[in-house]
Design brief:
CATH architecture of the largest domain: 2-Layer Sandwich
Strand content: 15-25%
CATH topology of the largest domain: Nucleotidyltransferase, domain 5
Helix content: 40-55%
Distance between the termini: 67 Å
CATH class of the largest domain: Alpha Beta
Number of helices: 20
Oligomer: single chain
Mean pLDDT: 80
Number of strands: 27
Length: about 750
């Protein structure tokens, strides 16, 4: 964070410490160099006998002794190989989603967990943004491991120098090129960008290579530097490292310059080859890129003949960067020490550009906790002053309260305290009474609401009984018992006459006796119910019975319609009648049919929750030969079961509620999931026609064929042998009143659920 208008750019290299202090000029396009410093170590940090920590510490102390940095912004660089630089081209994306994509890319590109690194990113100039979408955008991603960051700022921390910016050296060099050598990014045409400039910063052990045209940046660190030339002289001319270093710097004044350059030529070739390989890789990645010129910086670039050799090998313009176009200040720039080491000040110049806010890349690898601790430390004096002020105010307040308290006498307020206690007790009593009244009121309201909710449910049980009665098939006899007995006597007399005249025809005439009693009805023997907290416990054991009941009922309903249509065939039906008779099948064996009920919208396939299970035990006599095929279980399905399923239409009359008097389907009053639980075989059953049959059920019926008393009081076999079918049906009943939006059923114990 900037603290003044002056910025110190400091670069701790392996050869020496470089520092440059700059400020903004009246010309917004330039910087003013106010001061500089160059402190060369007694020996290179890479030499075996060197102590890097001590050498750097001494150089920093010497720098502080020469310069006043209090209140200035401090920007520090670290070598390029100490960090990671990635330039990533993004796909078309919303501008607001770029941070999320960058975080994802950081996890992919950085070979360490993000918790172990300090990383920063910035969107580069270029690309198109329209309607919130960005196309052809490119981001620059930089990262360093936390231990490398701590190692880089340790010398400054030991010297109590507060760092504001920590930047990689290649990024600082890229800022120099974009500010000093290229037009502003806003003035660059993305479709016709200027040729790229190559900046090679030659260090002791490596060379930072930066290529940019103002819109795109490419960076690489080459593993060759000034020490490679020194070691070539050590090996080729058999001398010590210090002597070889001195000879390298003064090669033109050597006793045999030709021999020196011949010794260095392999290193020249290696450096040129490595540089050419890097340029080829860059142009291979970006086919549209053009290389304009190559600029050399770093003290190793002062080696005589290096720039000419590279220009010849690369077939490009190669120059040393001997002038900073955006920097002014003759008091510094014209100093012999600065001019002699100007090539080494490119990195600190780029740091000053970033510190003053005019650089193209503004990322910062300084840990946020360092900045936070510094901010807290800066605010500590103000915090202490505020605490002292609060303490003084509290003390004054306490003194005032103490004076008031000391003047207090309890006897003066005894009556007031007594009245207060009385009022408090009375208030508590009233409050308690009020709470009790409110509780009673809420109970009354709850009871009232409950009665309102269940007012229409008082008819539900009767409604269920009436619904069962309405769905039970019956034909009421139109004749009295006396008339029926008279007809029976006439039928027996006619039968006896026929038997006397022609005995063989008697068996054939018996079925034609015109008896008016119609057995097309169901007899309900008992009706029972049981409440289930969870209907699934009832449904699971009888699910197969329910499925077979539903399947057969649907099949027999369709079959009944088909037989009805065959009974009154149309012209087309008569034309197709032979085929239908040939392919017709009985509905025998439908109990074994496996059937999945058709799923209607919002129709459950099993009952859930609480409810009642109604059981009906009964029988019917609709089982004679002339009733086939609708007899036994089939007759039960095609009458009562179809009514329960609602396939016979709206037959249930509503007793109360908004729809009172209207007819609805059984399911509208809560009748669902009917199933035939027990189906007994058809058995013979004797029906007596005698007036006072003995041992019968009061209707002249008995369980088996046996003689009964005749009309004259004697024993006779007067009666009919019928066929009886007994059954057990169960279905679910969840009481509800049609037309009522919300109804809470009762569980039978007075509790709503």
């Amino acid at each position: 964070m900037a603290r003044s208008r002056n910025v110190w750019g400091i670069d701790i290299g392996k050869c020496g410490l470089k520092a440059l202090r700059c400020s903004r000029s009246s010309d917004s396009e330039k910087l003013v160099a106010d001061a500089f410093d160059y402190i060369e170590y007694p020996m290179l940090l890479t030499q075996p006998e060197a102590d890097p920590g001590e050498l750097v510490r001494d150089a920093v102390e010497e720098f502080l002794s020469r310069n006043d940095i209090v209140g200035d912004t401090i920007a520090v660089s670290v070598p390029g190989q100490a960090g990671l630089s990635k330039f990533i081209k993004l796909p078309p994306v919303e501008a607001s989603k770029i941070p999320d994509i960058v975080t994802y890319e950081a996890r992919q590109q950085i070979p360490f967990p993000l918790e172990q690194v300090i990383w920063s990113w910035q969107r580069l100039e270029g690309g198109i943004e329209e309607s919130g979408f960005v196309i052809d955008a490119e981001i620059a991603l930089f990262a360093m491991k936390r231990d490398q960051v701590a190692k880089a700022i340790e010398p400054f921390k030991d010297a109590d120098i507060e760092i504001d910016i920590l930047q990689l050296s290649p990024v600082s060099l890229a800022n120099v090129v974009m500010f000093d050598q290229l037009p502003k990014p806003s003035e660059v045409d993305p479709d016709a960008p200027p040729p790229s400039i190559v900046l090679a910063s030659m260090g002791v052990d490596s060379t930072d290579l930066v290529i940019t045209n103002g819109l795109k940046i490419w960076q690489r660190t080459m593993p060759i530097g000034g020490s490679n030339f020194t070691r070539a002289l050590v090996q080729g001319m058999r001398m010590t490292f210090p002597k070889a270093e001195n000879l390298k710097r003064n090669a033109a004044r050597a006793d045999d310059p030709k021999k020196v350059f011949q010794t260095l030529r392999p290193v020249f070739n290696e450096f040129a080859s490595e540089l050419q390989r890097s340029l080829n890789y860059f142009t291979g990645q970006d086919r549209t890129a053009k290389i304009g010129q190559v600029l050399l910086v770093g003290n190793a670039a002062k080696l005589r003949g290096l720039s000419d050799f590279l220009a010849k090998q690369l077939q490009l313009e190669v120059h040393r960067l001997l002038e900073f176009k955006g920097l002014e200040g003759d008091l510094v720039l014209q100093t012999p020490a600065f001019r002699e080491n100007q090539l080494a000040f490119a990195t600190v110049y780029g740091l000053a550009l970033q510190g003053l806010g005019v650089a193209g890349i503004r990322t910062n690898l300084l840990p946020s906790d360092v900045t936070r601790d510094r901010l807290i430390h800066a605010k500590k004096p103000w915090a202490v002053a505020a605490m002292l002020g609060l303490l003084v105010a509290a003390l004054i307040n306490f003194l005032g309260i103490y004076v008031a308290w000391s003047s207090f006498s309890e006897s003066l307020f005894a009556n007031a305290f007594t009245q207060i206690d009385s009022v408090v007790a009375k208030s508590s009593q009233i409050q308690s009474s009020l709470e009790q009244a409110q509780s009673e009121r809420l109970g009354i309201l709850e009871t009232q609401q409950r009665f309102i909710r269940i007012k229409d449910r008082r008819f539900q049980t009767l409604e269920l009984i009436r619904a069962i009665e309405a769905m039970t098939p019956r034909n009421e006899p139109e004749k009295t018992d006396e008339v029926l007995r008279d007809e029976m006597k006439e039928a027996e007399a006619a039968l006896a006459a026929e038997e006397a005249r022609a005995a063989p025809t008697t068996a054939a005439l018996k079925p034609t006796i015109p008896i008016s009693i119609n057995y097309d009805e169901l007899h309900i023997d008992s009706l029972d119910c049981q409440f289930f907290e969870d209907l699934s416990t009832w449904f699971e054991p009888i699910e197969e019975d329910w499925r077979s009941t539903i399947a057969a009922a649907k099949f027999e309903s369709d079959n009944e319609e088909e037989q009805a249509s065959m009974a009154n065939p149309s012209d087309e039906d008569e034309a197709e009648q032979p085929n239908s008779e040939a392919g017709g099948e009985s509905n025998e064996g439908m109990d074994d049919v496996e059937y999945e009920p058709e799923e209607e919208e919002n129709e459950p396939q099993s009952p859930t929750g609480k409810g009642w299970v109604i059981q009906i035990v009964g029988h019917h006599f609709h089982n004679e030969d002339y009733h086939a095929p609708f007899e036994g279980r089939t007759y039960l399905r095609t009458t009562f079961i179809e009514s329960l399923l609602g396939e016979r239409g709206e037959i249930v009359t509503v007793a109360a509620g908004p729809m009172a008097g209207e007819k609805v389907l059984p399911k509208d009053i809560g009748i669902v999931f009917p199933a035939i639980i027990e189906s007994n075989p058809i058995e013979d059953y004797w029906v007596s026609t005698a007036v006072d049959s003995v041992g019968d059920d009061g209707m002249g019926m008995g369980p088996s064929r046996r003689p009964s008393r005749g009309l004259d009081g004697g024993l006779a076999e007067d009666g009919l042998n019928l066929r009886k079918y007994r059954f057990v049906i169960q279905f679910v009943w969840k009481p509800k009143s049609p037309g009522v939006v919300e109804l809470v059923p009762d569980d039978g114990n007075g509790n709503d659920y």
